[in-house]
User: What shape does this take?
Amino acid sequence: MIENKKVHKFGMVIDLDKCTGCGACMVSCMSENNVPFKEDESNKKDSITWMRVYKLTNGKSFPETEIVYLPRPCQHCGGIGDHGHSPCVSVCPATATDYGYDTGIVSQIYTRCFGCRYCMGACPYHARYFNWWDPKWPEGMEKYLSPNVSPRMRGVVEKCSFCYHRYQLAREQAIVEDREIEEMEYQTACTTACPAGAIVFGDLNNPAHKVHQIVKPDPHPDPMNHKVVGKSRNPKVFRLLERLGTNPKVYYMSEREWVRKAGDNYLKGEWENVKTHHGASSSHG
Amino acid sequence: MKIDRRSFLGLGLGAAAGIALSPVGVKLTDDSSIWTQNWPWTPVPEDGEITYDRSVCSLCPGACGISVRKINGRPVKIEGLDDHPINNGGACLHGIAGLQYLYDPARIKTPLKKNGNKFEKISWDEAISLVAGKLGEIRESGTPESLGLISGADNGSMAQLFRRFMDAFGSPNTYTMPSLESNLALTAAALHSADRSLGFDIDHSDFILSFGAAIIEGWGSPVACIQANASRHERKAKLVQVDYRLSNTANAADKIIAVKPGTEADLALGLCAVLLAKTKIAKDSLSGDVNKLAFSAMLEKEYTSDKVEAITGVKAADVEALAMAFIKAKAPVAVPGKGRGDVGQSLREFAAVQALNALAGRLNKEGGVFVMWPAGYLKFPENVMDDTAEQGAGKAKLAGSVTELVDKLEKDGGLSALFIYNANPCYALNNTEKVKAAMDKVGFKVSFSSFMDETALKSDVILPASIFLERLEDVVSGAGLAKTVVGLCRPMVKPVFDTKHPGDTLILLAQAMGDSIAEGFSWDSYEACLEEVTGDIWDTLSDDGYVVIDDKPPVGTPVTDFTFLSSAPKIDVPMGEGDFTLVPVDKMRLAGGSMISSPFAVKTVSDTVLSGKYSVVEINPATAGALKDGDVAVLKTAMGTVKVKIGLNEGIMAGVIGMPRGLGHTFNNPYVAGKGVNVNDLIGPVIEPGSGLDAAFGIKATLSKA
Assistant: This one.
């Protein structure tokens, strides 16, 4: 018999006013997930960083300049209408990437991937990375590799998994003890590392979880744009390129309007319309 | 057979169904993945039981608690330790990357002896007897004071053990690298009394006035500072940053006060002048203090708001408004030490900022600055000193600071042997060419390094040290924190290479020297020594992993002595000529000083900081002239000429060039060395009279297209 278990929808809120750009999340992610490194990583186009911190500026001159650091993991899109057809999943010919309907996590199965990179083309967030080379660790450094995450080989695409192995560990523990997973039992490596406490992670479907309380996701489709579901009812919270209807599970938060505006490329006058109807209107084009 | 429309459609449907059900498609994708995924060597990390061990990170003076996840006893991940009084679960990227240091191929794997230009492997027995023999000769020649020591931190049992060795040997010539802690100790000595330090209670302050302190980029105890900053919003505490560029800290601040580089002390004195002229608190707070009249007369004459405006570029009205906002806050604190507060600091600046705290009545108050006693938890038994030791140790030191020592050595030598522990002066001090030349003047150099860094490469013998994940040690917080916590760093693995705990090395060395030196080091091991000297706190330390020694404001208000400030000479920095002022910039993702960044840390560095082999310098577009973003340019100072890439950046004051610190390492490690330029190569030391500090915060420079 199939039990009607509660479906999770794991998501993240990143407070951009708290993020200092220190990079702890990036390194925590890399050391948690066996991400390799090369001699020269300064060409960021072929540098594999599941979690990447971007820098945005308001473009004004010192001392009026303001910077915002924007950490970008995989956005774990729910796809149009939040039905699970995230951009990368829809285009994968090998079913190497998949949508977890019980978790909301977009997975990547390395042994199935044959490197066509359609998913990379489809991802509007540049969250996927292709292994052009077999990773090499300097002699002896492979000793710190974790058995919980498969090292990837040349020719495959990889990306952030919301530290899915941590979910598996927590889930197994919960099953053994015949109970639900608790909020703090499953946290991603970037969340636990952040010294500023800028990242909050949890189940967006669970009203007891902090992410739910911050985001207050609207369960109904946006009346102006039916592709968009789960829009935040908190006016300080936004998603990247929200109007595309990819329905990411990573939300960003800022008090500053220019930062919220930086979440998309608005045409002239468009932002005013979206801003004033925040939480209601988000028609695209 | 006639193909009619119906059968045609049927054939089409049949073909579609056939293709859909055929295994050919699946087979082809499967084959493609097999063909594309040829990996000659597939790492299969060993699985096993998961355990977590507690320890303390000692990569920097932050002293954060860490949790090490192990699989079958093999460490796989480092994270911040929850509920630790310093970092409360947080971690910085350098600590998280700790395992890369453990297995780093650039580590020194056995004791080494220099033979010509090459190092050859020797056994520990050979190494100890070689060093003990050389030191024995020096002692016999009657000049024990010609043994020097340059070390990093100056607290904890390892620092005391090294000092004990130097005393028993008979040399006063111990030097520590410039650090925030050493600068704060100097400030306390100049203004209050010797053997104290300053701790800033940023956690409880509601108005933090930072004089360029990179609170987010690694000032003090980095994680504790980031957390104190992060809690600011909830506490409704303001951060005002005095700076000449948009550092991450400035960016997080509520307000930026833009000053010309190098005039921070003048601004602080200007604020002191306003407080003295306009508020009663400042006048009253001077009662009982030393030389206050001369100080206040000097301020009245030299630091009127107009004069301060001319020097610093901050409008007179803003100087006055800032001073009043500071004094009106409930718990204001002024924080000195631009950048990480280590190299390129003047005592005048530290003292001026501390004078502001004193005048605002913020000494030993919650949310203010604590004039702290050293953590006196270590009780070493009386040292054993023979006549040679008494005579040598009683002599005057060769120099007042490590920068002065370098100057002296380079000019006329003076040391026949030198120990280097936890320090990389050939990289971390300004004008590294000069430091290397000074090193060449020392006959015999013994390095206790873990990594083949620039200074280890200059050494004659290397006694390789186990790193923090392989060793036991007491780690004391300091670094500007308003509390003292002693943490216990524990070995997480057996030494990966043939290295030893430097404490054990020192004990072996002392015992090989024999006589009185051996008597003073009669422990079986460093572990036995640590257990003895930590006496009262050992049980708590080994059970809990840390002991909080002090976290309350010290009792009473210390007397402030303004003598140094009343007559502190202004130094004419920056030196040289050029349209630009080159200043080093501290970045959180790049380790500074003697610490070397990990491959992970280097990987995270933005391409606006490091681009291929080039350091990228920050320049305001308004002053870049014909130079465009990404151009290769020639940067010239009185110390040298290098090629850099241009990074146009609105967030830096016009006329200033910001160059990242922590790049340009020159040893053999392609992941972290050979990238960019060491900014210290380009800056000449400017020694401040009265403190011996290298006050060169920058240098004049020219920039032209390559």
User: Anything to note?
Assistant: The CA atoms of residues 166 and 495 of chain B lie 27 Å apart. The longest strand of chain B covers residues 640-648.
